[in-house]
Amino acid sequence: MTRMLLVVTGMLALSAPAWAASKDYQVTGPVLAVTADTITVQKGKENWEIGRGADTKVAGDVKVGDKVTIMYKMTATSIEAKPAGTAKKKK
Fold first, then answer.
1. By CB count within 10 A, which of 26, 41, 53, 63 is most buried?
2. How are beta strands 67-73 and 38-43 bridged, if at all?
3. What is the mean pLDDT of residues 80-90?
4. What are the extents of the domains in the chain?
5. CATH topology for 22-73?
6. Are 87 and 43 in contact (CB under 8 A)?
């Protein structure tokens, strides 16, 4: 039992820096559209479509026209690296 507790504690300690690295952002504005998995908000002259899931906490009944403040994180879902190009030699 103690060994299992140490393993779980170690895993949490190692994964904590990954959580801390993800910064919180916010956007506030009127709601333009709401679907089961997105919400579109107008910020200035731009429309921001932000994804949402089953774990998204929602306070109140969000409707088109409501003013909302959305807290979100930007986290990469995949990264593809390509080698840097080589400089061509002049003759």
1. 41
2. unpaired
3. 80
4. 22-73
5. OB fold (Dihydrolipoamide Acetyltransferase, E2P) (2.40.50)
6. no
Which pLDDT does position 14 carry in this prediction? 55
Q: Can you read off the two tokens belonging to residue 89?
A: 């030699």
Alpha-carbon distances, residue 18 vs 13, 71, 78, 90 (angstroms): 10, 18, 15, 46
Q: Are 47 and 33 in contact (CB under 8 A)?
A: no
Residue that has been written with the tokens 């003759």 in this structure:
91
pTM, rounded to two decimals: 0.64
Report the C-alpha gap between 14 and 32 in whole angstroms: 40
Placement of tokens 């061509």 in the chain: 88
